[in-house]
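Box S2. Input/output pair 1.
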Amino acid sequence: MADPKGFMTTPRQDWARRPVEERVRDWDEVYVPGALLPIISKQADRCMDCGIPFCHDACPLGNLIPEWNDLVSREDWRAAADRLHATNNFPEFTGRLCPAPCEAGCVLAINQPAVTIKNVECAIADRAWEEGFAPPRPPERLSGKTVAVIGSGPTGLAAAQQLTRAGHTVAVYERADRPGGLMRYGIPEFKMEKHHLERRLEQMLAEGTKFRTSTSVGREIGADELRTRYDAVVLATGATAWRELTVPGRELAGIHQAMEYLPLSNRVCAGDLEASPLSAAGKHVVIVGGGDTGADCLGTAVREGAASVTQLDIYALPEAERDEDAEPWPTYPIRIYRLSAAHEEARDLRTAPVADADARLFAASTLRFDGDAEGHVRSLHLVEVDARRRPVDGTGRTLPADLVLLALGFSGPDREDGLVDQLGLAMEPRGTVARDAGFATNVPGVFAAGDAARGQSLIVWAIAEGRAVAAAVDRHLTGSSRLPSPIGPYDRPMVV
């Protein structure tokens, strides 16, 4: 503990964002370049090195947070990078994309702003790359065993890297033209620039992991062929079966799923397209869904030059502070008002003058869509709802809508490619892949991890699942494993 009084003398200071008017004119990350390192050592000083660090329990990876906070406060970046990578394969991803349940569990957060754990993590990861502290780690010898990992999101990549480093020959199958999953084509560039992803993929290639892109398992390659070719198979396809909105007018043109819209803007940034065919430019946009995916659509539509953007959230406007009765420390408070970078932009630019806060209308439920003579959506009718989602009389209103984006979450793996049925996988009633306490499915040699089995979750849980299933597969192949297994398949976040 470098400064025993740091938490009393140093106020919390977050990584500064670039001015709104500047950042909405480009697709670069929203933070001021270089503004983190000058403040981060003092911020790490605020860590109290608690006797019982609840941040460990709040983080499914079991990140050694007090240890690397202390090392950063002393500016021992190499040791900090070693401790960080001991539990997390991709800290530059979580440092940008994770909502930081660790900070909600920080002991300091009982009565003060928490330590900026996420910022410290990001600073260590970026410094590790700059200083060469994250070299490839190819195995010393090969086991002779082969593993197929289906899906290249954070779960698939973490599993593949762990298994490769253990000496197995691993091939990652990805149906898109580039690996990365939602980090590639779901997460907008302004949240995480893709060079962070490319750098890790290059590291994995140097370690020996193989990538088979533009290959849909179940179509281009059958399940039986895959099982014959490999000693083990890891299903890490994610939960990409999106939820629908069944209201009158849903069939109108101009109503799209968020994951039909977001990949196109990412392809524009990648240089694949000159302009998105679903661009929001000059359109009145309504986003149905109040979660992170909806916020990603919001920031994207603002950058594309939408005439207006409104986001509908079926829940009531949350309080600024956590409800200690409903969501006490150290649980992660779900219902608390948060202002993401996209919402800050929408608020300052007044993209939705009718909104309750920033661009959001809370306690709002969609009733129907109306269109023009050509069958294109032109308006959305909504009503305010109470805590039980029952319509409140006299609260109906109409919003102009030329483009409607549905961001209602996901229910489980996409089954259109036939993989689940070809394998004969047992499924849970909620649509996810069933597995036992060792991540194994009902099919011998086939394991399931990540959102495909857990259900829609956070990136930090996805990486933890990837590390844990790697240990299970290693044990299956060799009889034992020294790989870490941070979570079990039935573990869940801390709740009351």
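Box S3. Input/output pair 2.
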Amino acid sequence: MNLLSFAKGALAMFWLVALLNLFYPFAAPLGGWVSWGALAVLLAHVGELVLFGSRLRGLPLLWWQRLQVLLFGLLHLQTLR
């Protein structure tokens, strides 16, 4: 298993925890930390989408590529080389 796949899996688990926290809020202060962390990661990935959006143009299933950048950020962009 390579490091990039492991990192994507760890980030997917983080998003699952953040989604779980959204529907079943964790006790304080953990719930707040998870919510703020998820917001920070989402804002960073939106910034990456804006900065590197030109790399995605011309790829098949553009909406799928954008969704993966929102979820995985630079980890997905490195697989596009």
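Caption for Box S3: The chain has five helices and no strands. The chain has one domain: 1-74.
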